[in-house]
Amino acid sequence: MDLRLTEDELAFRGEVRAFVRDNLPASIREKSVAGRRLAKDDYVRWTRILAAKGWSVPHWPVEWGGTGWSPVKQSIFLDEVQRGYAPEAIAFGVSMVGPVIYTFGSEAQKKRFLPGIVDLSDWWCQGFSEPGAGSDLASLRTAARRDGESWVISGQKTWTTMAQYADFIFVLARTNPQAKKQEGISFFLLDMKSPGVTVRPIQTIDGGHEVNEVFFDDVRIPLDAIVGEENKGWDYAKFLLANERNGIARVGISKGRLDRIRQLAAIPVYGSGPKIDDPFFRARLAAVEVDLKALEMTQMRVISNQRRDGKPDPASSVLKIKGSEIQQATTELLMEVVGPYVLPYEDPEALTNEPPAGPDWAGPAAANYFNTRKVTIYGGSNEIQRGIIAKAILGL
Amino acid sequence: MDFDLSSEQQMLRDNVARLMKKKYGFEQRKAYLAAANGFSDDLWRAYADLGLLGAPFAEEDGGFGGGPVETMIAMEEFGKALALEPYLETVVLGGALVRHAAAPEQRADLIGRIAAGDLRLSFAHAERQSGFDLNDVGLTAKRDGAAFVLDGEKGLVVNGDSADALIVSARVAGGRRDRDGIGLFLVDAEAPGVSRRGYPTQDGRRAAEIAFANVRVAPDNVLGSPEDGLPAIERAVDETIAALAAEAVGAMSEALAMTVEYLKTRKQFGVTIGSFQALQHRASDMVVALEQARSMMYFATMSAADDDADERAKAISAAKVQIGRSAKFIGQQAVQMHGGIAMTYEYKVGHLFKRLTMIDGAFGDADLHLRRLGDRGSLFA
Lengths: 396, 381
Ligand SMILES: Cc1cc2nc3c(=O)[nH]c(=O)nc-3n(C[C@H](O)[C@H](O)[C@H](O)COP(=O)(O)OP(=O)(O)OC[C@H]3O[C@@H](n4cnc5c(N)ncnc54)[C@H](O)[C@@H]3O)c2cc1C
Known about the structure:
The structure holds 2 protein chains of 2 kinds. Chain A is an alpha+beta fold. Chain A is built from 12 helices and 7 strands. Chain A folds into 3 domains: 7-89, no CATH class; 124-232, Beta Barrel (Butyryl-CoA Dehydrogenase, subunit A, domain 2), CATH 2.40.110.10; 249-393, Butyryl-CoA Dehydrogenase, subunit A, domain 3 (Up-down Bundle). Helices cover 46% and strands 13% of the residues of chain A. The longest helix of chain A has 31 residues, at 279-309. By secondary structure, chain B is an alpha+beta fold. In chain B, a hairpin with a 5-residue loop joins strand 6 (194-200) and strand 7. The longest helix of chain B has 36 residues, at 230-265. Chain B is globular and about 80 Å long. Classes of the chains: A alpha+beta, B alpha+beta. At the A-B interface, helix 9, helix 11 and helix 12 of A face strand 6, strand 9, helix 9, helix 10 and helix 11 of B. Flavin-adenine dinucleotide sits between chains A (125-126, 128-129, 134-135, 159-161, 211, 374, 377-378, 381, 383-384, 387) and B (266, 268-269, 273, 276, 278-279, 336-337, 339-340, 343). Chain B: This is Pimeloyl-CoA dehydrogenase small subunit. Chain B: One of its GO terms (molecular function) is acyl-CoA dehydrogenase activity. Chain B: Its cofactor is FAD.
């Protein structure tokens, strides 16, 4: 047992840190530090910078653009990129559909779709949830029927994150209404420009536009738009959701936010002095850091475990629960540091050069707190994760 | 001890509740929000007609002789509906400043106009550097004969962009953080030298950053002794916190009611989600949090009129702590148990959550009051 990073891993960490510092465009970094929304172009620009270095899909097989790094190095990479305020990889392509395609897809699908994910020339979104199928995803009703040389998709998805930017959507649809719920579902790859696809925005409580409703009105797609076998979509979805959960701890993002909190807390913004002088506040900051350190170690344990048996670990539910709770805790601390100037509202979608109503450093701290309530709801809600732990780990 | 409302108070509650039910559906509220001032002038008139705007003022000042209980009743109903009108700013906070600082003739004049619905006030007090410290006042008031001239900036003035008049705190003497030397001045919002930048707030209301450049205040508009305004400010803020406690309890009870309704109707896995024990227990904890908050709302309401500043401050801080904690738990869990739908702007629960968050942050969050309470010693002394 040795919990220290090796010389090689330390050197690697330094290399990644320097790369992010030297290559992340300042305009993107500033927005991320302030907690402001990134534009589509910001994601694309950063992904291209990473892709040029060969780092945009580190965990993928080398032949499709992966790096061949050990799981420890992958996690160091993620941590450094997140803590350095770089945009997150668009998980829908990189961590969700990409691995599904290279694991279960046809050669033609791999060739067609994987390169576009590597440099984000194809933006993917996730068409799983429906109004009636949230936690109970398997009760989904979007249907696909075969008609000549096409599949015809009809139904509705909802909460589809960043569908307004997407070129493609991966969709779970029912192909056998007679079978047991989980057994009649297939996994499709669908061009958002197909006739019959309509995207309708949903505004979230922070005022932003990041989720959408997506309607399929008899959308015709080619027969080869199905992944793997017909009626086996649920297995691919489970594989995908386990991958999604792994990325969701976001340790580096929480570290970055804690850095920001410490930075703001050190400035004497209020007459009574810097917030960090307040022992009460310091104690609460320290408590969150303890939680985060433990999570970081837990994540490392889950990762090294995976290395041995290759299967997803139900302990990844621990990562999801703690990671999401810590993200929320850091947004609360940030609001506290900002203090009374959390009150002004900035339209997150507005493209304006008008200075904010409050001081510059205040940023949209409250909006981020509101928005971050989503992390205990999506990716399998924390209640669902507790159910998984009870069943899969405890056998209850 | 008697927790019962008098029959007049019961009637007041029924009247406000009826008005809210009729006029404050969530869809109707969207129309009020869209107005330039961010609320409904018609409802303001309706509040005047119901006697709400004069409720907490003494009869000899032109009010209807009520007090903190009447304020509590109105605020709780406003909280359920997420009412947008500047009742807290004008009647509760502005009104309290007038009651505690102004001379009798000023009082009669201002309160009469408030009660009639002809005067909307905002308190311009916070500054960029002041945080939650009520004594931190940098905007200056220089004597010019018997008049004063104001210079400086105020921020986070809730409804400051639509108020008819501003009560401005200003430093007449001493250093920026001294307790002595703070005066209160009534300034017409359109007076020369006043410039206001209005903006929406995170909880769907409006506020303003306001600059004062060479603003002359006539002697008649100096509220009380110009060097000793802080006790009145502290007292007015204590009363405002008590009123906010009631608004929060209203918002919490609405969030709980909506959540319970959702648990009974939303189905997943072939059953209503309210059949999951994990959610039942969480909803039960929300009830516990709400009842604790309601109790402290009563405690704050009863203490709001306490003349002993120390006892009053203790009670108010204790209430703020409980309200803040309950509001956070209930707001967060209401969102969590609704799932994705609560994250949408279209749906009321998210707005209740946001308002509750801002109430926790107003006039010092739960932790700040906990610290103050810790400094003041036992609640049971
Ligand atoms: C901001 C945001 C972005 C999203 N992005 C996407 C996306 O890109 N693509 C996509 O497909 N989906 C997306 N989702 C959807 C997300 O996965 C669902 O919201 C989630 O699965 C929960 O479903 P629901 O909202 O219908 O809530 P419900 O399933 O109705 O749950 C309501 C409440 O009941 C609880 N509950 C449900 N079942 C149980 C149980 N058995 N035991 C105990 N408690 C239970 C839940 O935990 C929750 O608290 C997104 C959601 C949000 C909020």
